[in-house]
Amino acid sequence: MSVDAASRTAGETLDDTLPQSEAHRQRTAELSRADGIPPGVAPGFDLIRSIGFGAFGSVWLAKERKTGRFAAVKFFSRRGHDWALLGREVEKLAALDSSHHIVGLIDVGWDAEPPYYVMEYLPNGSLAGQIANGPIAANDAVALARGVLRGLMHAHGSGILHCDLKPANVLLDQDFVPRLCDFGQARLSAEERPALGTLFYMAPEQADFKALPDVRWDVYALGALLYHMLTGRPPHRSPESEREIATHGSLGERLHAYRQIISREGSPTDHRKVAGVDRALAEIVERCLAPDPADRYPNAQAVLDAFESRERQRGRRPLVALGLIGPLLLLAAMTPFFLTTMRNAEATAKSNLVDRALESDALAASLLASNLTTQLYERTDELERVASDMHFRELVEKAETENWTDRSAIGSYLKKFRDASDARRDKLGLTRDTSWFLTDARGLQRWRDPFNKVTHDMDFSWKDYFHGLGVEFDADSGGDNPPRAELKPVRSPHISTVFRSDATGKYMVAITTPIFSSDDNRVIGLLGRTQHLWELLADYEQNTSLGMGKEMTTDQAAIEMRLMQSKQQLSLVDLRNMQLVAHPWMTLDHVKDLTETEISRLRISSDVAKAIERKLDQDSDDLNEVAARLSEYRDPVGQAGFAPRLYGGRWLAAAQPVVGTEWLVLVQERYDSAIAPAERMRSDLLVYAVAALAVGGGLIVMFWYFVTQALTERSTHPNSRDRTAAVDGKVVST
């Protein structure tokens, strides 16, 4: 046939089988003109209407008079070549009559004019009619292709190559099962004569007058047929390719152009874009349409095996997916339960750790409060022993009588006790008193160690350690201060309210005890000692460190560093106004330049103060047994912005009042440090969980990978043997 409208004879289309001579083209034109007139008669059959014509004859719908069944009658032109064609086609149909996938032969009119043969009539028409309505769904296309393959296998097994497989040569029975027809171009496997098929369906090497029949021609045509069903057009067919072929005049030139188009474009890929076309199906189509016959499937059986392997893989896919995804889904479903359990375990662990930390802090607070009470008692007792000594009292009376003109005897006497006290404290690794002092009954400081000329003979009757009224009056007389004459010395040992040192800016406390006259009738003076409050905490920390095996130190900087680096931070609070009076941060460098306004910012918040008061009231009436626990404590040093990095954030704390004072002991530790084991446990569990999921998922994937490989290996080597094989391009039965 020709491929250009200008060069086609009447009735020729691109879907017609290529004729090999001008005579055949002329015959096609004649058949087209005689479309409505039967070319002959078929005894026993009534011809009804023409249902098709081509280069070698026409096909008519007929009805058998005896049975009433419909049949298709194909008339051939009365030419020598057509006689040979009739003989070959009838021969092929007779040889393949037993196949359900090839149109059945009913009768042959050898001596009729023109000759004919009668075959089954299939009312659903050809596959070309189905494709004309648009592409066919992938699953239906595969089913039709497999039916065509079974027909080809039967033909190949009988040593017959179709050589002109196309939609018009595939008929559909009442169940839409494909039947091969039109074996006019068919060749025996032993023949060495060329056979031209139809453009865009025949293999490129077939489009050659010198080509020898090859079973892979039918493999290519099957691929083109399947491609056409999936995409709605044959492979390589486009307006451009049709014009390129039409530019050539002779058939040989057109065939050469056809071969060049396929070689240039290679295997088409548009079918991969079609819904339902998976990778396996796409690869089957592409291998069938490989331009090089060596790259194609060797025979129809191999193509059918590929389809069956694909079907087995598709059938196993849900099971494989279930086997692969099921355990993963199970792991995913268990993950929320694991996370919930982990969160609950983490919350329980944190709660237990917080409780344990608070219990530890409460114990430390109780021990510290008890230690402070003991220290204050020991210091007070030591002062009382000195102040009650009769010789000392007589020395004070004598000095008072002499208006304190000679104090050397008193100084020597007290210095001896002070030195003994310092030596004892040095031996124990405790801090020394800041000072010892003596005031007369009017509050004038008559002696101090170490000596300070500024305070020598200065009036300190306004100090709480003198009058014991629980308040520090102004140093200057007048205003709201009571007259100095009305301020009387304490008559029993007294622990003063805390006050800031003018020299260091740190908070201090003074312990005083009265010195009575020799007749015990009146107070003739006060003997006292002062101590920085942080040193009281340092003494406790020193004892604790010694108990833990640390070296004793008397270096102030080292002691302050220990207090700051301790896991449990120790503080003292003035209960009167909740002011911090001792804290690891409140070293000399930090507080000496702070104003009263700045120092007043170091107060516990009212909410925390109220919480402490409630807990102290609820826990016990015996303050020695009380330790208020705070799970949400904010350090004033961090809140005030002095050291937010060191003391900001959430803390755990325990508070314990110090008996005999207006002080509150605070032992605090970082919340993050307390729950660190739970956080590490959580991190470890997450790591183990991720590792378990990764290992489990990896093992599942690996297992199914090997299973899939094994199944694929079995699919590649099916148990059933090929019923046909290609040997050097020929077809042999097996």
Q: Secondary structure elements and their pairing?
A:
Blueprint (H helix, E strand, L loop, with lengths): L21 H12 L11 E10 L2 E8 L5 E7 L3 H16 L9 E5 L6 E5 L6 H5 L6 H20 L2 E2 L8 E3 L5 E3 L6 E2 L26 H17 L7 H8 L4 H15 L13 H10 L11 H88 L2 H12 L6 H21 L6 E6 L4 E5 L14 H4 L26 E2 L3 E2 L6 E10 L6 E10 H15 L8 H10 L3 E6 L4 E4 L5 H4 L4 H4 L6 H14 L8 E6 L2 H4 L4 H4 L3 E7 L5 E8 H4 L1 H41 L7 E4 L2 E4 L1
Antiparallel strand pairs: 1-2, 2-3, 3-5, 4-5, 6-9, 7-8, 10-11, 10-15, 12-14, 13-14, 14-15, 16-17, 16-20, 18-19, 19-20, 21-22
Report on this structure.
With 734 residues, the chain is α+β, with helices and mostly antiparallel strands. It has 3 domains: 22-297, Transferase(Phosphotransferase) domain 1 (Transferase(Phosphotransferase), domain 1), CATH 1.10.510; 354-366 and 565-677, Beta-Lactamase, CATH 3.30.450; 375-536, PAS domain (Beta-Lactamase, 2-Layer Sandwich), CATH 3.30.450.20. 45% of the residues lie in helices and 16% in strands. It has 21 helices and 22 strands. The strands form 6 sheets. Strands 10, 11, 12, 13, 14 and 15 form a 6-stranded antiparallel sheet that branches. Strands 1-2-3-5-4 form a 5-stranded antiparallel sheet, sandwiched between helices. Strands 17-16-20-19-18 form a 5-stranded antiparallel sheet. A hairpin with a 6-residue loop joins strand 14 (507-516) and strand 15 (523-532). Helix 4 (138-157) packs antiparallel against helix 5 (215-231), helix 6 runs antiparallel to helix 7 and helix 8 (279-288) packs antiparallel against helix 9 (300-387). The longest helix has 88 residues, at 300-387. The chain is rod-shaped and about 175 Å long. Residues 1-12, 546-550 and 718-734 have low confidence and may be disordered.
